[in-house]
């Protein structure tokens, strides 16, 4: 897909927009004891093959905005100009957003020429994040959490407000994704979930490509 987009004149440009979205899967109703075993990668006692096949032992619960969700996360890197997904990682929903960050960011020399700044929300703010970006030659566009050692947060708030105008573009990506396919799966298990989430991201890119192609007068249609 990336090669086809490049041939169509849709190479990644502008900042790198990093974020994650929750994709829900069928809820698994089990006892606390069985849940603990599943979370440890073990099979609950007395479960037969059919019960195992119909239980998702890979998805996890997580809370967002005071509401609980069960499923996985799609972590993405989208480019600022075209709002196309350039990289994706899939994890259980309870994995910290910062865990797959190193795999998502693009520090290739060609990419650095057009998009050195990495934009992300406060959930990515950490010393380790800043050190990673610096080591890869990338600019820090991550929103800051309030500094507990400072009474006046005005500096952080102004910085966050300025960056938010750019970072908000990633919400357009997730909005288009949800409008097109929704964010629920009917599959069970990590392998199927990963495959289907990647397919959903690809479908979003294809629809976005069609939109962009129409705006530039069909320039990319004959080269794809």
Describe the structure.
By secondary structure, the chain is of the alpha/beta class. The protein has a single domain, classed as Ribonuclease H-like superfamily/Ribonuclease H (Nucleotidyltransferase, domain 5, 2-Layer Sandwich), CATH 3.30.420.10. It has nine helices and six strands. Helix 8 packs across helix 9 (190-215). It is globular. The protein starts with a helix and ends in a 9-residue tail after the last helix. Mean pLDDT is 86; it is low at 220-224.
Notable characteristics:
224 residues, alpha/beta, Nucleotidyltransferase, domain 5, 19% strand, globular
Short note summarizing the structure:
The chain is of the alpha/beta class and 224 residues long.
Task: Outline the fold blueprint.
Blueprint: H1 2-7, E1 16-24, H2 32-39, H3 49-53, E2 60-64, E3 67-79, E4 85-92, H4 101-104, H5 109-114, E5 117-120, H6 127-135, E6 139-142, H7 154-167, H8 169-181, H9 190-215
Parallel strand pairs: 1-5, 5-6
Antiparallel strand pairs: 1-3, 2-3, 3-4
CATH architecture: 2-Layer Sandwich
The number of helical segments is 9
Mean pLDDT, all residues: 86
Distance between the ends: 10 Å
Beta-strand portion reads 15-25%
Principal-axes shape call: globular
Using the CA coordinates, give the radius of gyration. 20 Å
Task: From the 3D structure, determine the CATH topology.
Answer: Nucleotidyltransferase, domain 5
**Structural class by helix and strand composition:** alpha/beta
Low-confidence stretches: 220-224
Compute the number of strand runs: 6
Number of domains as seen in the coordinates: 1
Quick one: biggest sheet? Answer: 6 strands, mixed
**CATH class label:** Alpha Beta
- CATH superfamily, by name, is Ribonuclease H-like superfamily/Ribonuclease H
Order of helices and strands: HEHHEEEHHEHEHHH
């Amino acid at each position: 897909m990336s090669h086809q987009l490049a041939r169509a004149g849709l190479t990644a440009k502008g900042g790198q927009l990093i974020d994650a979205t929750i994709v829900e899967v069928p809820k698994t109703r089990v006892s606390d004891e069985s849940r603990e075993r599943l979370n440890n990668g073990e099979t609950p006692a007395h479960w037969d093959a059919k019960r195992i096949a119909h239980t998702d032992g890979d998805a996890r619960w997580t809370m967002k905005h005071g509401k609980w969700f069960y499923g996985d996360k799609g972590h993405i890197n989208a480019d600022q100009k075209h709002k196309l997904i350039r990289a994706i990682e899939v994890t259980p929903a309870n994995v910290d957003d910062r865990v797959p960050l190193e795999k998502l960011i693009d520090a290739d020399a060609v990419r650095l020429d057009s998009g050195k700044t990495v934009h992300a929300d406060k959930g990515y703010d950490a010393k380790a994040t800043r050190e990673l970006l610096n080591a890869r030659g990338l600019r820090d566009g991550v929103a800051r959490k309030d500094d507990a050692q400072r009474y006046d947060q005005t500096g952080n708030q102004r910085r966050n407000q300025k960056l938010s105008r750019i970072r908000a573009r990633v919400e357009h990506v997730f909005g288009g994704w949800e409008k097109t396919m929704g964010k629920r799966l009917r599959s069970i298990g990590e392998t199927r979930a990963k495959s289907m989430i990647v397919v959903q991201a690809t479908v979003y890119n294809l629809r976005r490509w069609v939109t962009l192609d129409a705006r530039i007068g069909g320039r990319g249609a004959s080269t794809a």
